């Protein structure tokens, strides 16, 4: 039907006749077809003349036709394509969040395009210190990227694909020009592929690459890769983006059930031909090194970080496997390799084909799952619903640094869990796997929020009404918080973990954030920045989302009343005190009761012996102050009873 319509439209267009009526032979009057009115006799003859007239309208003038003949449109189209599709290589631009070869969509697309056009594939990474400074990236996370890039370089070399790493130390906003005017021409490339980044600066940069590139005959293509479900995929009934997690999460779950293709993994890149290594331009790219260190981002505890956060996609898969198949262990709560086996390891982790996690005795509070076939013992995944809030052992996956830098894809992770669950990806609080998948959904959610509400990457509160909340300026207390000297053991333990490990378990993150904002009444932006500067997994969307949620300026639907009591929270985060004893050795000898609140539980004499600070704030008073200030943004008082 549509085809018929299209024919009709085309047959009446001027382009089809080559020109307007005056351009046709009929128009010239040589063999002019009579107009319909000139038909003479009525009836058939009149109709024939009308038809002849119409048909002659479509006949091009000989001169025009000859001109078109000289430049056949097909050749023109191909030449135009050639102009854009030209170039002698194809570039995949790897960025800060997709540092991997496996299941990388832009890389796979670039490779496919290179193969189709018989062009070599080049992988480019541009280090931009100005960006990292502006975004408070930690030296640890930069060093982690560099380590992973070295690992990737070796892998790509095996496929004759060069990894070209350069540093753009100039103005970060001039990166698009640098790429289009210098880097791509130096590689004779007119095609560049990359995965999308959803933060405002990065999106603006990519728009510029796209628009400026088009003017310079460079075609840029950006694709979704970072998340299981791309931002903007679904909206509320009113057509707005979601700002609350629970209804969004139900949509997310349903969407993935209906569109399993979103979890399909991308193909590995095809290798280049051997001859590329001796090519005059591309051969040299194989010799370039990934820098050992980036100026301004020297990682002081690099040796320790290498142990605690080893690099590589294979490592990330092992870390995932430990979480899926091993039990938690107290000894593994801190500065250890995340690939530790756990207590009840009895399975060949790398060949998990016939392992299936099945639901045994589901209960609302703690779903019991067992591994069918090879093993029926507790695993961190199985117990996640009940243990995830405890930091007394390695209850969570410790995958965040690998996910934040894209060393492993979210698809690989979710597919592994899906397989364990008999090819069904459940999410929800009823089981360990369901709860964990829900945590992974939070990662998607905060990225959706970042993309839909760009102001959150611009320092603004998600809920503008809290922009005027009045903060205390107290450097001494802020430093006490950073250094773990607040006199609240759980806060101090967590802040020491942050400083020494570059990472923190989720529950202590929330407790520390709440303490800074609600107990000390210090601006959440300062905490957000400090975490970014310390963490290995620093990620704008998750960090900003976590801070705003805890500071009650974010997506929490019941924000005003949520003020964490650091002592009762301590009992949740460290039920038997192991976490506190590990990170605050001054308190190692205390009883399970005293360890959460030694100032209250011990006599002044006993407390003095500990060499541990007294609480820097009275929580009860601080709570009232916070409630008063949130209730009346702009109010700078202390609150009353
Ligand atoms: C104040 C604050 C700041 C935070 N900053 C970051 C950050 O910079 N980078 C970061 O990756 N996470 C951040 N989080 C979220 C969360 O604390 C970490 O993702 C989690 O502790 C990482 O440990 P894991 O990998 O063992 O997590 P698991 O419990 O094993 O969860 C699996 C994965 O799900 C994702 N995830 C889990 N919880 C969340 C969450 N609440 N928000 C977003 N993603 C989540 C992470 O990618 C995580 O690796 C922050 C939370 C708070 C409260």
UniProtKB/TrEMBL annotation:
Needed co-factor(s): (6R)-5,10-methylene-5,6,7,8-tetrahydrofolate; FAD
Name recorded for this polypeptide: Photolyase/cryptochrome alpha/beta domain-containing protein
GO molecular function: deoxyribodipyrimidine photo-lyase activity; DNA binding; FAD binding
InterPro entries the UniProt entry points to: Crypto/Photolyase_FAD-like_sf (IPR036134), Crypto/Photolyase_N_sf (IPR036155), Cryptochr/Photolyase_FAD-bd (IPR005101), Cryptochrome/DNA_photolyase_1 (IPR002081), DNA_photolyase_N (IPR006050), Rossmann-like_a/b/a_fold (IPR014729)
GO-annotated biological processes: circadian regulation of gene expression; entrainment of circadian clock by photoperiod; nucleobase-containing compound metabolic process; response to stress
Binding site for FAD: 384, 396-400, 436, 439-446, 537-539
UniProt keywords, alphabetically: Chromophore, FAD, Flavoprotein
Residues with site note (Electron transfer via tryptophanyl radical): 471, 524, 547
Record carries keyword Phosphoprotein: no
Keyword Flavoprotein part of the UniProt annotation: yes
């Amino acid at each position: 039907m549509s085809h018929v319509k299209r024919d009709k439209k085309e047959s009446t267009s001027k382009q089809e006749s080559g020109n307007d009526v005056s351009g046709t032979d009929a128009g010239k009057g040589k063999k002019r077809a009579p107009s319909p009115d000139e038909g003479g006799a009525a009836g058939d003859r009149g109709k024939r003349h009308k038809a002849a007239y119409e048909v002659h309208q479509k006949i091009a003038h000989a001169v025009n036709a000859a001109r078109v003949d000289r430049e056949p449109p097909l050749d023109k189209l191909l030449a135009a394509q050639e102009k854009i599709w030209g170039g002698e290589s194809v570039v995949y631009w790897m960025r800060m969040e997709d540092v991997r070869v496996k299941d990388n969509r832009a890389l796979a697309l670039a490779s496919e395009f290179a193969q189709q056009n018989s062009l070599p594939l080049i992988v480019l990474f541009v280090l931009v210190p100005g960006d990292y400074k502006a975004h408070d990236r930690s030296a640890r996370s930069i060093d982690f990227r560099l380590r992973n890039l070295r690992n990737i370089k070796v892998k790509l070399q095996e496929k004759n694909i060069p990894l070209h790493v350069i540093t753009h130390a100039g103005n970060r906003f001039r990166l698009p020009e640098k790429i289009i005017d210098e880097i791509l021409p130096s590689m004779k490339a007119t095609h560049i592929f990359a995965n999308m980044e959803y933060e405002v600066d990065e999106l603006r940069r990519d728009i510029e690459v796209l628009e400026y590139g088009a003017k310079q005959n460079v075609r840029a293509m950006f694709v979704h890769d970072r998340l299981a479900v791309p931002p903007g995929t679904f909206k509320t009934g009113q057509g707005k983006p979601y700002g609350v997690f629970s209804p969004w999460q139900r949509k997310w779950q349903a969407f993935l059930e209906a569109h399993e293709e979103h979890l399909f993994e991308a193909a590995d890149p095809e290798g280049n031909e051997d001859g590329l290594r001796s090519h005059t331009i591309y051969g040299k790219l194989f010799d370039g090194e990934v820098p050992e260190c980036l100026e301004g981002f020297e990682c002081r505890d690099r040796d320790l970080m290498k142990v605690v956060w080893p690099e590589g996609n294979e490592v990330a898969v092992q870390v995932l496997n430990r979480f899926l198949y091993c039990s938690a262990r107290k000894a593994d709560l801190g500065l250890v390799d995340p690939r530790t086996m756990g207590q009840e390891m009895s399975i060949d982790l790398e060949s998990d084909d016939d392992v299936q996690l099945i639901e045994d005795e589901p209960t609302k509070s703690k779903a019991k799952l067992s591994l069918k076939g090879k093993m029926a013992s507790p695993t961190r995944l199985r117990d996640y619903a009940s243990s995830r809030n405890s930091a007394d052992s390695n209850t969570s996956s410790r995958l965040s640094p690998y996910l934040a830098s894209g060393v492993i894809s979210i698809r690989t992770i979710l597919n592994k869990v899906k397989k364990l669950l008999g090819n069904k990806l459940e999410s929800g609080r009823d089981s360990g796997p369901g709860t964990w998948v829900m945590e992974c959904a939070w990662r998607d959610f905060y990225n959706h929020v970042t993309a839909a509400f760009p102001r959150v990457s611009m320092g603004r509160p998600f809920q503008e009404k809290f922009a005027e909340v009045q903060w205390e300026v107290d450097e001494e207390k802020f430093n006490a918080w950073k250094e773990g000297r607040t006199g609240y053991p759980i806060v101090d333990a967590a802040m020491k973990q942050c400083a020494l490990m570059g990472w923190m378990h989720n529950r202590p993150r929330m407790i520390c954030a709440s303490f800074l904002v609600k107990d000390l009444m210090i601006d959440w932006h300062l905490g957000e920045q400090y975490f970014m500067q310390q963490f290995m997994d620093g990620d704008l969307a998750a960090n900003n989302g976590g801070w705003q949620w805890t500071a009650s300026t974010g997506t929490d639907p019941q924000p005003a009343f949520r003020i964490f009591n650091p002592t009762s929270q301590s009992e949740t985060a460290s039920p038997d005190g192991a976490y506190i004893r590990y990170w605050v050795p001054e308190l190692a000898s205390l009883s399970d009761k005293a360890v959460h609140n030694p100032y209250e539980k011990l006599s002044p004499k006993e407390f003095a012996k500990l060499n541990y600070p007294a609480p820097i704030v009275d929580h009860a008073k601080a709570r009232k102050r916070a409630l008063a200030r949130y209730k009346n943004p702009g109010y700078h008082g202390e609150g009353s009873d």
